[in-house]
Amino acid sequence: xxxxxxxxxxxxxxxxxxxxxxxxxxxxxxxxxxxxxxxxxxxxxxxxxxxxxxxxxxxxxxxxxxxxxxxxxxxxxxxxxxxxxxxxxxxxxxxxxxxxxxxxxxxxxxxxxxxxxxxxxxxxxxxxxxxxxxxxxxxxxxxxxxxxxxxxxxxxxxxxxxxxxxxxxxxxxxxxxxxxxxxxxxxxxxxxxxxxxxxxxxxxxxxxxxxxxxxxxxxxxxxxxxxxxxxxxxxxxxxxxxxxxxxxxxxxxxxxxxxxxxxxxxxxxxxxxxxxxxxxxxxxxxxxxxxxxxxxxxxxxxxxxxxxxxxxxxxxxxxxxxxxxxxxxxxxxxxxxxxxxxxxxxxxxxxxxxxxxxxxxxxxxxxxxxxxxxxxxxxxxxxxxxxxxxxxxxxxxxxxxxxxxxxxxxxxxxxxxxxxxxxxxxxxxxxxxxxxxxxxxxxxxxxxxxxxxxxxxxxxxxxxxxxxxxxxxxxxxxxxxxxxxxxxxxxxxxxxxxxxxxxxxxxx
Length: 508
Hints:
Number of strands: 0
Largest sheet: none
Helix content: over 70%
Distance between the termini: 61 Å
Shape: globular
């Protein structure tokens, strides 16, 4: 059976709604982990660099495991993966409430919750893309705001729950709320299937017909009889005395020798054919792996893509820590809680949602170069990060949090930038590579900034380092994207080594 055409509406809007709430419930706590970070510092008394690993793992593991997440959704479907991952997220959060030390949190909150979020993100994006074609950009934009709204609400919610029930009670309640993902997953109805039967050789359709021995040429009963015969002969050897077996062989020798020889030849022929089939199948698989690595090397020969990979790595190393550490920055600046109008993380969350929508709309204008727009957001982010050490009041930190949140919304235009860089044909391959390095940056950024604080007892050098990382990535991408390089390439263009030029002889 095959999938029908995307309906671009109908039940698809229910899919958008439940995908929005799925991302809301799964990403709310991991993105607002800065509130929990302060409590973990006080509870376990570990260094800020080590404690920061909890939140960085929760955000980075899902991206690092994106190939595995994609394979799971492709194999089992969005609905089963969503329900299973809902148990993972809820279970990880509830287990974290019983954590005896910080190392337990690395596993329960960092790995289990992080991997569950990665699976849920892949499932929601996949099923939304199946239901929408013409309105796919709008649908993806709507579901992506679920995580930002979750960050905005969970920052204040977790703070209130900690005051009322303590850290352990907060994690239990947040885990219970995450069980709503199961209800969302149950509504992710797979797209209607047509009644056309699957091809008989669906799993091996690319293998030549002459190698499909067990699917076409042989019959199951014959194979079963051969296996039973081999088993009976082995049983005879084990259970009967050697004298009885010899006598039985003598009596039946004349009757069985011709049949045995014929079946032996048939069995040998099958073994030979099966071995050849396996060799051909393995050869094709190996060729696919070789092609994958050749395409990967070809992508990195593109200087803009290579710069983009460095830029996204540096951006996540420098740009993600404020999401985790901004509350601690305010506490380190001796800002009293009476000055708080709204948690800084909540400001980051709501401005990120606005940034995703505004930057996404700007990217649709034909007169705007999306690559340059992305570069501008990187450079502005770097400048804002460098300015954090100079902000000593709640108002200044709130303004910088809003600016950083808005600029972090550049995630909504990142697929556009990747498409512009490598083309739509290589988008999936390139995007998977870039997301892996984004996860690596998410995992390393907060611990690095925390270690800087442990070393200097101030966030000044830490955020200067973060800002310089993002600035370096933005400037490198800007230089690589300058149009002068295209002019140089056009002037020095030569035919590829495996192409040949032909001239048509003029008729005389």
